[in-house]
Write a structure and sequence with these properties.
The protein is α+β, with helices and mostly antiparallel strands and about 675 residues long. Helix content is about 30%, strand content about 25%. The strands form 9 sheets. Strands 13, 14, 15, 18, 23, 24, 31, 34 and 35 form a 9-stranded mixed sheet that branches. The two termini are about 35 Å apart.
Length: about 675
Amino acid sequence: MSTTEVSKDAVRVACDVGGTFTDICVLNELTGRMHVAKVPTTPDPIEGVLAGIDAGGVALKDIVLFSHGTTLATNALITRRFPPAVMITTKGFRDTIEIRRGNRDDLWDTYKEMAKPYIRRRDRLVVSERIDYSGRMVTPLDEAEAADLARIVKKRGVKTVAICFANAFINPENERRMRDILAREIPDATISLSSDIMPEIFEHERFSTTVANAVLAPVVGSYARRLEGRMKEGGYHEDVLLLHSGGGVMTAKTAEQFAARLSASGIAAGAIASRFVAEHAGFKNSIGLDMGGTSTDVSLCDNGNLRVTKEWYVEYGYPICFPSIEVLTIGAGGGSLAWIDAAKSLRNGPQSAGSTPGPACYGRGGSNPTNCDANVVLGRLSDNLAGGKVLLDKALATAAITGGVADPLGMSVEEAALAVLKVANANMADAVRLLSIRRGYDPRDFALVAFGGAGPLHGAALAKDLSIPVVLVPPNPGVTSALGCLLVDIQHDVTQMYLSKVEDVAIDDLETTFRALEIEGRERLKNEGVGDDRMVFQRKIDMRYLGQWRALSIPLSAPITSLDEAIASFHHEHGREHNYSRPGAPVEIYRVSVIATGLTPQASFAEFDLTDAPAVAVGSRSVRFDELPEAVETPVYDRGALQAGMKVAGPAVIDQLDSTILVPPGVTAEVDRSLTIVMRIPLA
């Protein structure tokens, strides 16, 4: 990878739209060299996307692949800025999405109000119909009632509808008939069926996912069509690919049908990029630490496989059950506020100074101490960022730390700044433990990939705390999430319920079920223009101990000859995940699924010859490290001048345009062939 000017050869472009900045990665297909651009996110994100491509020095006609990660769907759910919608459900099930599971985000706070459903009760309409648990038709859809409901929806001027019938997952006949009646009355309506979106048991989860998909479909569909149109006007005539939560991409056409899959688009990109950086450096096991200005996203990759969850949410109580890369987000970033609670204990986050006014050192009116201010006080950050575009005022940072932490706790300003960062690091370390140790993984077996604007400042300290031996810092830490959008294939997850004890399973019947799912996956890929020669199908089987509700997803080879290997894998994984295994206990199958993948041409990245030349510092500044009793004059290196093979011994600071890397005493940092910095952490 390189930051040199891109040539006019065919290029791939990836774009990650965040709340503050839109990041662009441009990869030259012929040379493998990459450069980046960063522009402010605009009220209409499409303008920012096009401005970013222009800032990258790329003509739309020269782009051969455009991949896009966005927070559009996430923000729409948070702000509830979507068109009015109606839910039509079975009589007696109107309040399913409001009753939820009866649990709370904060179990002990009975006064904390839960978020309201995405569709109000007055807009949840009911109709007579009933199918039993086995799929037997008990009460056919009352078509007269259905026609009346269609007229009511039309009269209200609503064109977004979620149809959620009880037990439709096993027999979708009534849902499909309701859809046909609605479509006849409102031909241009956007309709989501629970039997299409999530054909699985458990009404709340199925209804909630379908409702989220329905309200997002017009938002995502309109955005995708407009973006595709603007790109074509400029000369780009390939598919606009949108990154979804499962770690694959969809075309604009399919994104409208499965809009809720974009709800975790942005954070999935960072996890994918983290895995790529680690594997490129020779590490199959990695933990991603994406630390930005407001939050930190933690992901885990075990033997090349990112952890996937099948239940997540934007707002607690309203699950979205599309498969998603598991990412744990906490309120710890460069702008997180340090504060003292009622018990006089020092806390850090989740409150943030945001971009306005920002940390005190920005000089924009902020007065509360932040992690950024603490790093400035300790000399870990220089007095300017982004190549001099952002100037930092150490005096203002010192005043904030003094007034907010040092004076109230009776500390010196340096002691207070160190304490602020130790609390922030402890919060992030706890998040890593939740995703690793709690899942049965030993952090000592992993490499830590530190990226985001603030991640490389904290990476070494976290690794030492968690006994992680290696920290990897990618060439462009601040825009690494955009890189993740370049590294994905088209992907669909097709699932079906299959409740049966393993001893009762007929292998031929199970094989037939998987083949049917593969046919559906093949059709979805064909609709996206994927040829048969680029289709790959991976089978998975969800298993659980009889009587339990937690299931584990186990890979299954094709064709199926026996379930013995899958059962043995289930017992092993259950022991690792939950710390106990019962090989003699009865096991049942809960669900079967197929991951249908349409392979996109894989990117290849430039590698550089190793040099024996020593790294040369460009200056020095006084820096206080955790390991030393006082500040020391520390060499500062320019990352742009570091070549493959060069080594830097701590204590040292490495500055670059979009981040700062802290190399503590005793740590060595070496630049590998892809210009990733590999820090070796000495462990006791």
